[in-house]
Amino acid sequence: MYADSTRCAIYRRIKNKEKNISKSVNRIIVTSIGLLIFSYHLIDIFDLYSKGKQNKKKSMGGGTQSKLLEPSSQISTDFQCDNCRITIDQVSWKQCNQCHSFDLCGQCEQINYDELIPIVLDNHKQCHKKMHLNEMITSQDITSISIVEAEAEANQNLDVRSEAEYQRILKQKRIENDYEMAIVMNMLQQKQNPISTESSDVHSMISGYHIQASQTNIRILSLDGGGIRGYMPIQVLCQLITETHLSDIENFNAENDKHQELFHAAQAEFIKKFDYFTGTSTGGLIGFCLAINYNILKLKKIYERSSFYFKRNRLGPYLWDKYDPVNIHNEIDKIIDQIQWPHGQKLTAKNATLLDLHNLLNPKQEVTIQQLAKDKLDETLMSYGNWLEFYDSKFSKDIGQSKIRSFVEREKVLLITAYNTTGDIMTVFNTSYAKHWPYLIADVLKATMAAPTYFPPQHIHKRIIRDGHFIEDPHPKPAEIFIDGGVFANDPELVAMWAIRMQWKKLVNYHLLSIGTGTYNGKLSPTTRGGYPGWIRTDGLAINILMDATRSSTEIMGNNLAKFNNIRRMKFNYRIIESMSLDDPTFIQKFNDEWESLKTGDDFKALLYFYNKYINKQSK
Asked: What would the pLDDT profile of 279-292 be if each residue is shown by its tens digit?
């Protein structure tokens, strides 16, 4: 008895010691983490203190005094930059102080006047010639002007300039865009009793412009962000393609090699129906794969192996990102490496740019090496900048050239969102926008998926042009740092409508199919704690709510805009009943379990109806 009680006592002591050791170890771990976090804060405090001392020295040393604020206001104007053709939205800019008809926006005014492209300088010279002004123009003639001063000066010459533009439009017998429509309407208000023949021609042009708009349909496929839940739009698209383009196969089997080949061919027909593909985060990857016709049955398998691609970091997301992106990044590179590029080009993820992707999507409007040669480069870049105006050949077969616009026949465009933290500005990477051509495709895809706390930010170096090719900069500037586009457009459908408005510059019909990844249902409760633990430890509550907030605002605005006649929209989505984070691997199995019944429901039937009426039929 005594021996047994002694052994029990010894056993209890050992157990108590083990518990105490375990508690001590936990305290050490927690203390270490706390010290690391505290050290980060100390570094931040030291940086702030150092900057404060530097600013103080500057202010005391007679140098330029540090400022807290600088002008950043925006205002609508009727002035366009004569270099990039963007409508000026600043309260002051640069203008020629002789003719008062040549304007430069904030970005273009940074360029030396003599270094502007020749066509811009020639247009300015011709303007001086017509006005009998000095044709020897220098940078000294380009000075700052405010909106108030510019408007006052413009009013003195408004009638002459408007009449000249009005006569030009009458001569071409066609209104091409909203800019020309505004000129015509303003002149009609001034000419209360225009000549009868002139009035007849003008009214004919106005009605023709609106008839053309009613017959111009732009078809858009928009894909939401949502992490692993990107599996849902892939499954939905597979079902849509199968039912609309493989209806003769009774029992489609995605594992059957022959069926996979037939599906790939059907997918090629499906993507021909769309003009714009737009995506955010996981939707950006899916949109890219569709645009290049990478078989999304293969893409679906990537999501089914999410545990491999979402490689967990220790102590993430407390000290660093939750996941190591190496595996998913390698897979993105492999997809790009498999692309069959035109003309037998040997391109890989390490050198394929958005220009290469533009040429792949639009072989008839390929931008050639010759167009990127030194003597043609500036004009080419301007042609795919704000000078760009898409048109339909069936309406504008005899469209002429213009000194202020670049007419390009309808193209297939890929839009991918990301947020540039270096410039504190949203970025919508656009394959038909020259400023984005120097970016690598791989960098763009990795940037749009760099969800804060989940994956690290993407550091990007733009390439430079040499002899008609984009190459790595031998003397690179500091990298631009991008994060997931979901922080401003997790549902990118409004982004697509904005891009179309900027690139078509005229009234069109928007036929928009938007597919979601399920609406998040994470709720705050009275017991939810604030601070880092409350927002980060609870399955990424902060990032999930912020991403879903941008989706919610877009859906509400998009739905209300679609009540107007020129927008036809369907948002295909489901509400997730239980709380589920962006990286929850159980979503795939749970979705598959319910999809068998969901695909026979009213939502999917409505999707079939919308696709057949507004996408498939309208493309023929």
From this structure: 999 999 999 999 99
Residue written as token pair 């704690």: 529
Is residue 578 very low, low, confident or very high in pLDDT (cuts 50, 70, 90)?
confident
Residues across the chain: 620
Q: How many CB atoms lie under 10 A from the CB of residue 438? A: 18
Q: Is the pLDDT of residue 338 over 90?
A: yes
Calpha distance 536→322 (Å, rounded): 11
Question: Is residue 501 packed enough to be buried (19+ CB in 10 Å), middle (13-18) or exposed (0-12)?
Answer: middle
The stretch 355-373 carries a mean pLDDT of 95
Give the DSSP letter string of 378-399: HHHHHHTTTTEEEE-TTT-TT-
In this prediction, residues 374-390 reach a mean pLDDT of 88
pLDDT in tens, 513-548: 999 999 876 666 666 666 666 666 666 667 777 777
- The 3-class secondary structure across 562-607, one letter per residue, is CCCCCEEEEEECCECCCCCCCCCCHHHHHHHHHHHHHCCCHHHHHH
Q: Phi and psi dihedrals of 601, rounded to 5?
A: -85, 180
Q: Which helix H or strand E contains 414, and what residues bound it?
A: strand 413-420
Higher local confidence (pLDDT), 403 or 299: 299
What is the 3-class SS of 44-77, one letter each residue?
A: HHHHHHHHHHHHHHHHHCCCCCCCCCCCCCCCCC
Q: Whose structure tokens read 């309260």?
A: 91
The DSSP code for 519 is B
Q: Find the radius of gyration of the CA atoms of the chain.
A: 30
Which amino acid, 131?
M
Reported pTM: 0.86
Alpha-carbon separation of residue 17 from 12, 119, 442, 582 (angstroms) = 8, 84, 54, 41
* 141 contacts: CB under 8 Å, gap ≥ 6: 96, 97, 98
- Burial class of residue 434, CB neighbours in 10 A (0-12, 13-18, 19+): buried
Spatial distance between the Cα atoms of 199 and 140, rounded to a whole number of angstroms: 44
Do 605 and 244 meet the contact criterion of CB atoms below 8 Å apart? no
317 cis-preceded (ω within 30 degrees of 0): yes
